[in-house]
Amino acid sequence: TGKPKGVVRDNGGHMVALKWTMDNLYGVKPGEVMITASDVGWVVGHSYIVYAPLIQGATSVLYEGKPVGTPDAGAFWRLIAEHKAVVLFTAPTAFRAIRKEDPQATLLPAYDLSRFRALFLAGERADPDTLVWAQDILKVPVIDHWWQTETGSPIVGNPIGLELLPVKPGSPTVPMPGYDVQCVDEGGRPVPAGTMGAIVIKLPLPPCALPTLWQADERFVESYLAAFPGFYNTSDAGFIDADGYVFIMGRTDDIINVAGHRLSTGGMEEVLASHPAVAECAVVGIRDTIKGEQPCGFVVLKSGITQSPDAVERELVALVREKIGPVAAFRLALTVGRLPKTRSGKILRATMKKIADGEDYAMPATIEDPAVLDEIGLALKAKGLG
Fold first, then answer.
1. Which of 5, 58, 334, 386 is 20–30 Å from 150 (CA)?
2. Is residue 304 part of a domain?
């Protein structure tokens, strides 16, 4: 929202959830080493850099820096090897950055990762392409899991401490204890398995989740409980398959309406990310006088790509048409040097949309580098937009 909400944390409930997840979800035992690469002020940082490992009697490594350029794309491998870490928890963005700089993982063999058991990804959607790449190079389970600042610990995950469930790339797996996760339509009615809808949690929430917002009880009710009575509204969209696996395809705001068809930007991003030249991407719906909205794909190319950006853009348009179909009306791919992100690695899609639509926007307080927004504006102007 650009305005910090102030989530109230119930310390007792939060502590119980963190201890449970260390044993059962992350599978980190007392005396072992866990590395969580996050900003310490964010929910992941204070939950899994500070509290959870220390409550568990494990060792936590504090690391400030990028996974690339400090000094190279082997920074995480060095950390894991030097500190004999068993688990690394970071954002998918970090792995997209590593893949962009070192697509063949040539820096990895120099480090001893023999004690390393699992990589956990969260903070934004882990596209299947990045997840499979990480799995292939690391030869350990790569676990996507989904949660929010508001919930304080994972809502959906793969409990490797109990038993590793089959990994389905694109899904953070199944709900954790205390969470009755459901998928509903705009009227709050359950939708059939595999059907896109709003992801909601049946009340009551488990003890680790927020009881309210700081000095804003009415805003708490309005933001989370009013849209679907009897449910907590996660503001995420997706579907639940026949096996009960949850798929988060983006924020509810990221479901765009193209000529009456509701389309997931996450699904389009998945297609763009599968192109061998693409390091990372973001799709936003921009205003269109005829269709209501049209998808626009911003892509960052991998290092060392010799193909011209124009050629890649044409291939991407054809790829979306082939994989999703003409209904997506995907005609606009823009190559940019980088994407605007928060310090924790979330892509600022809503701000990009406002720039594309020519609307005023507030500079997000959490932005990593404000100069990127000007670069996005220039790229759009070059295509006659924004």
1. 58
2. yes
